Amino acid sequence: MNDEQQIRYQAHHDALTGLPNRALLQDRLELAIATAQRERRSLAVLFIGLDRFKSVNENLGHVSGDLLLQKAAGRLDACTRQADTLARFGGDTFVILLPEVAGGEEVAAVADKIIDQVGRPFHLADREVFVGASIGIALYPADAESADAMLLHADMALTGAKEAGRRRYQFFTVGMQRSIRAKAELEQELRRALERQELILEYQPVADVLTRRPVAYEALVRWCHPRHGMVSPARFIPLAEETGLIEPLGRWVLETACRQLRVWQGMGCSDLCVAVNVSARQLELGLCAADVESILVASGVRPASLILEITEGLMLDGRAESCGRLQALRDLGVRLAVDDFGTGYSSLGYLKRFPVDELKIDRSFVQGLPDSSDDVSLVEAIIGIARSLNLALVAEGVENQRQLAFLRDRGCGLVQGYFLGRPASGEAVSAWLACPSESASPRQESAAHA
């Protein structure tokens, strides 16, 4: 290869993987569309994103990240035909152009093959790494008639696949355009919400099953949108995690909850604790013991008064970096609780590996008590596990006296739910704590206005 050929090659190929780059892909896609239009046939574009690549890059280093990209490129290439084009679009995103397809079923078969191949373990030096592939698919001429539109729509479909749970594929639909626009608007509004103090915390009591007195309050973030009213956390928390806004949002929640707890402790409730939810994404973005310690010091709260609730899914994942950060938090003196316990459908061996202090029985197992024999068996088994491991136990979603009586009689020490108290503002909780025997509890006030 002479110098001119070398320059031309480098201009059209990715230096790391040797695959066609975005410019060459664009050329081939435009040519394929012209051919498909002339011959009245269909083609497909697959946008492929590597799940968890960012985590590998951040925690194992860029050398391992580059090696993973090279190995992934090899597996993707094995899924293509000679006439197809596999290109690296940028970062952890690859694109496959299928210049002639019979229909959606053929494309789906290719996508299934890719998900299977990329989902197998990668061996990087002395480590075994698991990632996955999410895929967005656009078809010509059904979804678009230009190269730019095909790439845009396949990218939108990739976003849909990731939002649906990753490690899957989705075909483009017209509704995705509306969804993407709405999501972009919501992201901008969430950024402004942090600046404009539109976010608030409400606190739900965790009570002693015998006395019904609060021993802790779980902090729950709420968004009071100036036009849309209360925005559900189910809408904005996943968006915050995806965009990285969960980092400043999570820090604000921790700071605000700890300051509020210090107020309550200053009122004489020295043993009261506050619980804050921490997501896997926060740990991926670098939440560490030093951050939590600085917040505790600034607010004057003891580490043992803070409970960090983590999902069972995070425990089951068992990533080394997450394990290390959780251990450091535990060493700081912070208490760790496993939220939604029982929904992981996997081995309980992680309870031996992680120094957790508390289990929270998922509300889905409490709903049917005491009439559902399945729920009775599951809850009794979880109570037995907690007792044998000397862990505190909280039952979530307690909504009536019969559920409370069942849990009390079985020895579940702590309960949480609307029957004990609805989420209330910090001020409302303060008023009740100041005169618990003279004023209505936040639960009673909320019920009266419901």
TrEMBL record:
<dbReference type="InterPro" id="IPR029787">
    <property type="entry name" value="Nucleotide_cyclase"/>
</dbReference>
<keyword id="KW-0973">c-di-GMP</keyword>
<dbReference type="Pfam" id="PF00990">
    <property type="entry name" value="GGDEF"/>
</dbReference>
<protein>
    <recommendedName>
        <fullName>cyclic-guanylate-specific phosphodiesterase</fullName>
        <ecNumber>3.1.4.52</ecNumber>
    </recommendedName>
</protein>
<dbReference type="InterPro" id="IPR000160">
    <property type="entry name" value="GGDEF_dom"/>
</dbReference>
<feature type="domain" description="EAL">
    <location>
        <begin position="183"/>
        <end position="437"/>
    </location>
</feature>
<dbReference type="InterPro" id="IPR052155">
    <property type="entry name" value="Biofilm_reg_signaling"/>
</dbReference>
<dbReference type="Pfam" id="PF00563">
    <property type="entry name" value="EAL"/>
</dbReference>
<dbReference type="InterPro" id="IPR043128">
    <property type="entry name" value="Rev_trsase/Diguanyl_cyclase"/>
</dbReference>
<feature type="domain" description="GGDEF">
    <location>
        <begin position="41"/>
        <end position="174"/>
    </location>
</feature>
<dbReference type="GO" id="GO:0071111">
    <property type="term" value="F:cyclic-guanylate-specific phosphodiesterase activity"/>
</dbReference>
<dbReference type="InterPro" id="IPR035919">
    <property type="entry name" value="EAL_sf"/>
</dbReference>
<dbReference type="InterPro" id="IPR001633">
    <property type="entry name" value="EAL_dom"/>
</dbReference>
